[in-house]
Amino acid sequence: MGLKSKRIAILAPVAWRTPPRAYGAWETVASNITEGLVARGWKNVTLFATKESITKAKLAGWIEKGYEEDKTQIPKVSECLHISKVMERADEFDLIHNNFDYLPLTYLPFIKTPMLTTIHGFSDPDILRVYHDHKDSYYVSISDSDRDKDLPYLATVYNGIDLSNLTFRAKAGDKLIHYGRIHPDKGTDLAIEVAKKCGRDLIIAGIIQDQDYFDNSLKPHINDSSIQYIGPVNPVQRDALLKEAYTVIHLNTIPERFGLVMAEAMAAGVPVIAMDLGSCREVIVDKSTGFLVNNVEEAVEAVGKIDSIDRKKCRRHVEENFTIGRMVSGYEKVYEEIFRREAQKGK
Amino acid sequence: MGLKSKRIAILAPVAWRTPPRAYGAWETVASNITEGLVARGWKNVTLFATKESITKAKLAGWIEKGYEEDKTQIPKVSECLHISKVMERADEFDLIHNNFDYLPLTYLPFIKTPMLTTIHGFSDPDILRVYHDHKDSYYVSISDSDRDKDLPYLATVYNGIDLSNLTFRAKAGDKLIHYGRIHPDKGTDLAIEVAKKCGRDLIIAGIIQDQDYFDNSLKPHINDSSIQYIGPVNPVQRDALLKEAYTVIHLNTIPERFGLVMAEAMAAGVPVIAMDLGSCREVIVDKSTGFLVNNVEEAVEAVGKIDSIDRKKCRRHVEENFTIGRMVSGYEKVYEEIFRREAQKGK
Q: CB contact, 8 Å: A113 with chain B?
């Protein structure tokens, strides 16, 4: 049986629809992997996601709507039902590709199908207890920097993004842009500081994940002119937003795990000014597709040097490293290695 | 093989030690079931609980300390590890008696051992999605009132309490007592209202589960004299507290599921004034071991009639209905029925 006939179950989270309407980073990647496999000729791909999800693969689901979109749901209830339903069907698949976090691992002792887990982030060091309890499973990291030293990773596979809604624009806009989820981790307040110090307008977009942070640290600075907040953006709105961009300000305050926003910005030809924490130096080429900085002052300086960046290079960097095709070809190699090891075990 | 040689796994929660040091209602009941089975001659009982738990049965555990006692833990991580470890050992048991809530049910498709779930409460209607997905499992309710109409219950088994730390006292104290977890559901603010209207002193005890409620609705009334709050009480402190009791005020604002506090109070000879919601009318005999009321005014009236209650009757009512022996004998019947049905299936 050829590799591309293997039966693959892609396990997506059920916080949002897959692909999400606006925000939903893990669901976005799960969708990109699924559609990417189909596009590359994989014949037996099943996406396990909310029932209203959209895919060219087979769709299987138990949860009607994402629990972030239907607040009557208790997340844990939806999660454990969703996962157990996938596990009940484990025998129908040659591989389960888990994009869900740690809970599916606790069902591993009961299934025979191998599972690959892409670790999209360690939300808290305590979740390592589950990973360390399953060191004999298969893992992929989404950047070299976001690795736990005690886990046996098969590879780093960078997230791939869908370029179809990211128009390359040779001509720069004149605004500073900051988007993603609004949370202290993402340094939205620092972006405001940079904008004020540069005297440039700033547009902020994204869902508010920390309302106190928004109310106390951001809202007092937001007006309808120099500092705007426009709410979450879907892919079409994001494309329009990036058209306005002189540069994207991404001053994350904790180590970035991957940073989809940076790849999206560069795909549109927009250089990124990012904090040199975590994966940022893996996604951005310093002084070539943006600038790595260590504080607000350096970010302000970097804004002054943005014209030195070749916007075509930004686009090319994404095309060569962060496309869905590139990601899926990375996963194909990992799947192949898993099948090789499993066949070895069977002997 | 005799019934009492069957291998029973008692699955306790891991929020607190089993038995808990102070608060921990489900852990208390799980402990009472375990110790009660051992006391009645069951030979192969294993308690799955935190590793520091105490039992005369075999102890099995994976989680060092309860996640409520060690806040570095993410509850969901400890829960899913604890449960999956029990399930991995399912084949070693003839019955798993789940006192944990709904999450263990999602592992049912992967084990052959029958599971009995005592439903200690529906924390939210949404958790019914999991129960309804496993209608072919075995269920016990802790009161006739706390039942979901769509679930097939084998029986109601009332919680049994350990009488060893509940001294019967023929002589009444002169204080109103309110204890349990401090939460609007338990009507602590109503107890304060009753105390003020009666002109009697009130002592409040228990862990604060809703800090806003405590700070805003209770604290302004608390002084060091007429309205006292003394924090959580362990069984010995609780016994001393009940010595002071003229009556226990239990004006729950949502249907009570069982109401350990009411049984404990009556065991000490203390009549209870309870809101007529949920299981209260199953635990209290109105006008004989306390009073069922519908509001603060009726509760105030009831305080005036407390002398008409025979405190010996309160104690006797508990001895006849809510002892550990009584509860365990209830579970023995249920276990027997499960083994009968399982043997039937095997044929």
A: no
Counting Cα atoms < 13 Å in the Cβ hemisphere of B135 gives: 9
What is the H or E stretch that residue B193 is in? helix B188-198
Is the CB of residue A137 less than 8 Å away from at least one CB of chain B?
no
pLDDT in tens, B108-146: 999 999 999 999 999 899 999 999 999 999 999 999 999
Instruction: Check: CB of residue A74 under 8 Å from CB of residue B127.
Output: yes
Structure token pair of residue A245: 């961009």
Distance from CA of A129 to the nearest CA of B (A): 8
Query: What type of residue sits at position A210?
Result: D
pTM: predicted TM-score of the whole model, two decimal places: 0.90
Question: A84: closest CA among B334, B301, B80, B251?
Answer: B80
- Give chain B positions within 8 Å (CB) of A73: 126
Q: What is the pLDDT of residue B23?
A: 83
Which residue of chain B has the CA closest to A84?
B106
Which residues of chain A, if any, have pLDDT below 50? none
**Interface pTM (ipTM) of the complex?**
0.89
What residues contact residue B239 under an 8 Å CB cut-off, 6+ apart? Answer: B165, B166, B167, B268
**Average confidence score pLDDT of chain B:** 96
Q: Is A334 on the interface with B (CB under 8 A)?
A: no
Q: Which residue of A has its CA nearest to B107?
A: A84
